[in-house]
Amino acid sequence: MFYKCNTNGIVFVNFREIVKTNIMKKLVLILTLTFLTLTSATAQNGSMEVSPYLGAPVGDADPFGFNAGATFTYYFEVIPRLKVGGLVGFDHFFGRDYRQRGIDFDKADATFIPIAASAKFNITDRLFAGLDLGYAIGVSDAAGDGGFLARPRFGFSFPIVDIYGYYKAINYSWDPNDGPDHWDDKYNLGSVGVGAAFKF
Question: What is the pTM of this model?
Answer without folding.
Answer: 0.74
